[in-house]
Amino acid sequence: MEPFRAGFVAIVGLPNVGKSTLLNLLLGQKIAITSPRPQTTRNRILGVRNLERGQLVLVDTPGLHRPGGRGRTELNKFMMDQALSAIGEVDAVLVLVEAPSPDEVKRLEHGAYKIGAAHDTLLAALAEAKKPALLAVNKIDLLHKKNFLLPVMEAWAKAHPFRAVLPISALRQQGVDELLREVTALLPEGERLFPEEMVTDRAERWLAAEMVREQVFVLTRAEVPYAVAVTVDSFAERAAPGQADGRRMDVVIDATIHVEKEAQKRILVGGGGRMVREIGSRARHEIGRLLDCEVHLKLFVRVDPGWSQDARALKELGYE
Ligand SMILES: Nc1nc2c(ncn2[C@@H]2O[C@H](COP(=O)(O)OP(=O)(O)OP(=O)(O)O)[C@@H](O)[C@H]2O)c(=O)[nH]1
Ligand SMILES: [Mg+2]
């Protein structure tokens, strides 16, 4: 019989490559927020996947980006540290990259594939950590000419001694079974690390704040999502009257959307409160799915000048 394997696996890569989407897919449940914008994830988040012969403790991380432009804030330093330090603390690393873009495909037609310099930090961290690692090329559903996958996979196989290089689509759920097999094979033999019923290390109220932030990332543009942090001020569960099994009837949540400037507050509130209402109604739906009960959500928008540059404010907003 196959030995039972268990361990921590960091999912790392550049922003927007699909790390959080993959985490949710591997868990069969949405716990990490995702959006079409880069730098959506800011904290590590742990998700537990139980298999017949193993337990994967997956660690989603913020996308690795170079400090420059927006990347100079204290918040960005925190995000980079969350991702890079994870590599040193896990048993194995799953690197996620994207299938070549149409521009890269054009270049591929005229020569070999070159791994972008944006990956330098990640490759250096991998070399230093000396952890078993696997690479998955995600979003292959977007690649119309599949024959360009091979040179890309070869280039990655040369860049680091990955145990395997696999093509996947987190969105279309392609290549996932093989990925699970290969990831499990990287882990040490051993017992479960967490109880079987545990899905994540994050509290429901933290996940609720994230789901509000997700809708800000989906619905607002330019610098606005990057100026937003969300805190849950109160989270009250109510039991159905006379219900002895402790099942909750609903949850009443008050949350604050923190922005850095008055102009951003105006955008988030929107004409006649339209934007904050839309954020609230979509987030309420997502939180309801997560908590599996009715949710009442009240949102406040507040200006906290320069919070993303201020180490103390960051701690108060949950980035520590
Ligand atoms: N077409 C396609 N889109 C995908 C796939 N996987 C993820 N996406 C999309 O890519 C975007 C980014 O996904 P995320 O999961 O938020 O990416 P991330 O790597 O966690 O991003 P950060 O947290 O910002 O680092 C979202 O719009 C996803 O729907 C895929 O396999 N195919
Ligand atoms: Mg993410």
- Average of the residue pLDDT scores: 95
CATH architecture of the largest domain: 3-Layer(aba) Sandwich
Bound molecules: guanosine-5'-triphosphate, magnesium ion
Report how far the terminal alpha carbons are from each other: 43 Å
Shape: globular
Q: Tell me about the biggest sheet?
A: 6 strands, mixed
Beta-strand share of residues? 15-25%
What's the layout of helices and strands?
Layout: E1 5-12, H1 19-27, E2 45-51, E3 54-60, H2 74-89, E4 92-98, H3 102-109, H4 120-129, E5 133-138, H5 149-159, E6 164-167, H6 176-185, H7 204-219, E7 229-239, E8 248-259, H8 262-269, H9 274-291, E9 294-303, H10 311-316
Parallel strand pairs: 1-3, 1-4, 4-5, 5-6, 8-9
Antiparallel strand pairs: 2-3, 7-8
The chain binds guanosine-5'-triphosphate and magnesium ion.
Residues 15-21, 34-36, 38-41, 62-63, 138-139, 141-142, 169-171 line the site of guanosine-5'-triphosphate.
Question: What does this protein look like?
Answer:
By secondary structure, the protein is of the alpha/beta class. It has 2 domains: 181 residues, P-loop containing nucleotide triphosphate hydrolases (Rossmann fold, 3-Layer(aba) Sandwich); 113 residues, GMP Synthetase, Chain A, domain 3, CATH 3.30.300. The protein contains 10 helices and 9 strands. The strands form 2 sheets. A 6-stranded mixed β-sheet has the order 2-3-1-4-5-6, with helices on both faces. A hairpin with a 2-residue loop joins β2 and β3. It is globular and about 60 Å long. The relative contact order is 0.14. The model has no long low-confidence stretch (mean pLDDT 95). It binds guanosine-5'-triphosphate and magnesium ion. The site of magnesium ion has 4 residues, from α1. The site of magnesium ion (MG) has 4 residues, from α1.
